[in-house]
């Protein structure tokens, strides 16, 4: 049975959306030195939201020098307790501004408002709360002598979780005593820039955090700047490899959190209804724009028909449309370029001989939308089973034995995430110990906690974010 829902749009009148935004350097918003700007769009309507200053090499230099000055004169001289107070204030201000930030995240990125409201913003605040507590306890996190901060760190974040990724990067860096220059993705800069307003409101010392906007050229200028001591990047594996080369050439410390092709495994003794809900959460959450998405589903043969039948029914109930509607399950794809990439992969899957199943939902006539999709009759050699699509597209494969599924799951260049569904805890533990994945969920998927480290192996990157381990890349022992 399919239920019809009346529209329940979130009110946007309380959002202070400006026509234009500057770069945030040394505690103030400023224009780019050459006056260059770019536009950020609402992917659900294709309308321009704002003009944003574009940071050229000279602007990057200004930001790094401001961060270095703040590090030398203020931030490195504060006690951990004092730094923790500032970080705690950021967290509290995020909570107070949660509704406005959630709407901005939905407008700029296309994600459903209920996800921005219930996941992105609370998790961002919780990361600042968590690392505020670590700021005066760094000696407990390390071995081999008193830990020291590195200096100015350069951070580049993606468009799928703009505010949350900013929190993942900024909070541990500040707790460890570093100052920051961060570049958000060019398609989703607004929440990072509004975060700067919060920095002003809580009187964060000028220059401790600087936000510069632009494209890949801006990011490259930041990474290779001689004043940057450490680089942190979250994004595609292709770009991550380029960043690793630049950082290595300039002798900088680097951590990378890259792509994934997560294995989601359903054994025949699993609770099938719950497992299907986990699959939906694993691949259709945030339109599939999740690096750790469970995009490869392995189902034991005896329950394959039951899983396919229930998954087919379930995607028909997913509501696709206006991201600001509180009933929407799947919002807009972040950009036309990403939508074209997803549609190309769907065509590739069909050409490879896989059987496509898509929701019959009616898509909006404007904006970038994609119906929830999954493929059956997929071979491990198919491109849709090996390459990251980064959209609401699932590949379903079968297996007979535990040994077989372990080999198939590990047959990937990626190693970021996995999920296992079984009523036997011993089986979950035994399989998880042999999976090449940085994070493995037990009878759930896409659950996050600031105290739990997150990161991958192989082409999914190296280093960890979150938890005590998230401090290590920002400290010198």
CATH fold group of the largest domain: Aldehyde Dehydrogenase, Chain A, domain 1
* Biggest pleated-sheet summary: 7 strands, mixed
Average of pLDDT: 96
Taken from the alpha-carbon principal axes, the silhouette is globular
The chain-level structural class is alpha/beta
Helix percentage range: 25-40%
User: CATH superfamily of the largest domain, called what?
Assistant: Aldehyde Dehydrogenase, Chain A, domain 1
Global Rg: 22 Å
Strand content of the residues, in percent? Answer: 15-25%
User: What is the straight-line distance between the termini?
Assistant: 60 Å
Sequence stretches where pLDDT stays below 50 over 5 or more residues: none
Give the strand order of the largest sheet, numbering strands 1, 2, ... along the chain: 14-15-16-13-12-18-19
Q: What is the number of E strands?
A: 22
Please tell me the total number of domains: 2
Q: What does the model show?
A:
With 477 residues, this protein is of the alpha/beta class. The protein has 2 domains: 256 residues, Aldehyde Dehydrogenase, Chain A, domain 1 (3-Layer(aba) Sandwich); 180 residues, Aldehyde Dehydrogenase, Chain A, domain 2 (3-Layer(aba) Sandwich). Helix content is 37%, strand content 18%. It is built from 13 helices and 22 strands. It has a 7-stranded mixed β-sheet with strand order 14-15-16-13-12-18-19, sandwiched between helices. Helix 3 packs across helix 4, helix 4 packs parallel to helix 5 and helix 9 crosses helix 10. The longest helix has 22 residues. The chain starts with 19 loop residues before the first strand and ends with a strand. The relative contact order is 0.14. The model has no long low-confidence stretch (mean pLDDT 96).
């Amino acid at each position: 049975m399919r239920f019809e829902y009346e529209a329940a749009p979130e009110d946007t009148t309380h959002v202070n959306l400006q026509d234009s935004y500057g770069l945030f350097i040394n505690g103030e918003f400023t224009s780019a030195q050459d006056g260059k700007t770019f536009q950020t769009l609402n992917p659900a309507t294709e309308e321009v939201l704002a003009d944003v200053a574009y940071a050229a090499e000279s602007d990057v230099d200004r930001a790094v020098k401001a961060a270095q000055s703040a590090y030398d004169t203020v931030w490195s001289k504060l006690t951990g307790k004092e730094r923790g107070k500032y970080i705690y204030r950021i967290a509290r201000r995020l909570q107070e501004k949660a509704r406005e930030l959630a709407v901005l995240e939905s407008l700029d990125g296309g994600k459903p408002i209920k996800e921005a409201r219930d996941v992105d913003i609370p998790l961002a605040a919780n990361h600042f709360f968590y690392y505020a507590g670590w700021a005066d306890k760094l000696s407990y996190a390390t071995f081999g002598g008193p830990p020291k901060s590195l200096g100015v760190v350069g951070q580049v974040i993606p468009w799928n979780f703009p505010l949350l990724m900013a929190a993942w990067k900024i909070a541990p860096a500040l707790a460890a005593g570093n100052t920051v220059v961060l570049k958000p993705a060019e398609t989703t800069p607004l929440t990072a820039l509004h975060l700067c307003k919060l920095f002003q409101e809580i009187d964060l010392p000028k220059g401790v955090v600087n936000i510069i906007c632009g494209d890949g050229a801006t990011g490259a200028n930041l990474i290779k700047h001689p004043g940057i001591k450490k680089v942190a990047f979250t994004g595609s594996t292709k770009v991550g490899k380029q960043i690793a080369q630049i950082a290595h050439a300039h002798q900088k410390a680097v951590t990378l959190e890259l792509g994934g092709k997560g294995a989601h495994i359903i054994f025949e003794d699993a609770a099938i209804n719950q497992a299907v809900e986990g699959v939906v959460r694993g691949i259709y959450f945030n339109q599939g724009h999740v690096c750790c998405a469970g995009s490869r589903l392995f189902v034991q043969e005896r329950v394959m028909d039951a899983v396919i039948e229930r998954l087919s029914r379930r995607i028909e109930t997913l509501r696709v449309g206006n991201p600001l509607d509180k009933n929407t399950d799947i919002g807009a794809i972040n950009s036309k370029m990403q939508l074209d990439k997803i549609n190309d992969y769907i065509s590739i899957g069909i050409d490879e001989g896989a059987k496509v199943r898509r929701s019959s939902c009616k898509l909006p006539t404007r904006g970038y939308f994609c119906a929830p999709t999954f493929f059956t009759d997929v071979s491990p050699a198919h491109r849709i089973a090996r390459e990251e699509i980064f959209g609401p597209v699932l590949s379903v494969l079968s297996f007979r034995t535990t040994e077989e599924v372990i080999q198939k799951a590990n047959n990937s260049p990626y190693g970021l995430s996995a999920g296992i569904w079984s009523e036997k805890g011993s089986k979950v533990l035994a399989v998880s110990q042999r999976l090449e994945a940085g994070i493995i969920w037990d009878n759930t998927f896409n659950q996050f906690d600031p105290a739990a480290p997150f990161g991958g192996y192989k082409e999914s990157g190296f280093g960890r974010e979150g938890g005590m381990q998230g401090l290590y890349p920002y400290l010198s022992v």
